[in-house]
Design a protein that fits this description.
The chain is mainly alpha-helical. Helix content is 59%, strand content 5%. It has a 4-stranded mixed beta sheet. This is Metaxin.
Length: 343
């Protein structure tokens, strides 16, 4: 006798709908230091997608010019085109019925917004300062990583452009044009960040996630901001030391990495088999405009080298007055005629 199971039929219908839906494509910075990505914004989007079950085809790259928006992260969708802002990507996931906050109460939803605003106002400026303004960290870690991983010739100028962009972002958040490396700036930024981390630690307590056993958008934001600080090896590590003293936040980040971002080898060989060339599809080995990009890279490289030569004085251009040049040429010709006449 056959039995009808409405729950099972409902789940099969949902799964069929998900399989028919085209997977969205996320372009993000590649990972390092045991992180799926080195960029906080990319980590936030990746974590939220894993928490909500959103189907993503992830391209981990080191060349922002290969993304559809020219920046990272970037989300390519069928309905809304290309999205470049993380919060808009999360909104798009929710529109597609992939909502990590579905089970939250009204109060928990309000707490989520409050803590996200707190982190963006109090913690994010200190993180930007630590990675992009602190001279030791910037020179030895941040700029070095991007310069070594971004392909030539973009690695000559993209890290500097990113540095300027993060400084502008920091000034926009703090509303201060005088945020330069120094003791006073560090004290102000770090004081707020330390208090923010302590509040997060108290709110998390002994729970696995901030609202119990299921992760939410708050967990994605906290993970995206804290994981790089926890894993990167920074010579100037005042902020990092405080984070490592908060055991529950450290376990929180490690737990998410273990559960949702296992090592690539643990995912089996099926992921690498997706590329028809046998390589990593995320690096676009089969890109249709690869030849055009190679030619463009050559011209950019030549331009960069010529610019460097002019700036350093290796090559210089001197203006020659045409009138004096004609007189000199005429004098040389007359001199030659006189010599020939004497002969």
């Amino acid at each position: 006798m056959l039995k009808f199971c409405p729950k099972k039929c409902f789940r099969v219908t949902i799964d069929a709908k998900n399989n028919m839906a085209a997977a969205m494509e996320l372009y993000c910075w590649k990972g390092d230091w045991d992180l799926p990505s080195v960029d906080p914004d990319c980590l936030t989007v990746l974590a939220y997608a894993r928490f909500s079950g959103a189907p993503l085809k992830v391209h981990k790259i080191t060349n922002p010019w290969k993304s559809p928006t020219g920046s990272l992260p970037a989300l390519k969708t069928k309905d809304d085109g290309c999205i470049s802002q993380p919060h808009k990507m999360i909104i798009h996931f929710r529109k597609q019925k992939y909502n990590a906050d579905y089970d939250l109460s009204a109060k928990e939803g309000a707490d989520t917004l409050a803590f996200i605003c707190l982190m963006e106002e109090k913690f994010l400026p200190a993180l930007i300062y630590t990675l992009w303004v602190d001279s030791k960290n910037y020179v030895d870690v941040t700029r070095r990583w991007y310069a070594e991983n971004i392909p030539f010739p973009l690695n000559f100028f993209l890290p500097n452009r990113m540095h300027s962009s993060f400084l502008d972002r920091l000034r926009l958040i703090k509303g201060d044009n005088g945020l330069e490396p120094g003791e006073e700036a560090e004290k102000e930024l770090y004081k707020d960040a330390l208090e923010c981390m302590t509040l997060l630690s108290q709110r998390l307590g002994n729970q696995t996630f901030f609202f119990g056993q299921s992760p939410s958008s708050l967990d994605a934001h906290v993970f995206g901001l804290l994981a790089p600080l926890l894993k990167m090896k920074l010579p100037s590590n005042k902020l990092q030391q405080h984070l490592k003293s908060l055991d529950n936040l450290c376990h929180f980040c490690t737990n998410i990495l273990t559960l949702y971002f296992p090592p690539e080898g643990a995912d089996g060989p099926s992921r690498k088999a997706s590329s028809p060339h046998g390589g990593d599809n995320s690096e676009f080995d089969n890109e249709p405009h690869k030849r055009r990009n190679q030619i463009l890279s050559v011209f950019v490289a030549l331009g960069a080298m010529l610019s460097y030569a002019f700036l350093t004085g290796i090559v210089s251009v001197h203006r020659v007055d045409s009138h004096h040049a004609v007189q000199k040429t005429e004098a040389v010709r007359i001199g030659e005629d006189e010599i020939n006449g004497e002969d």
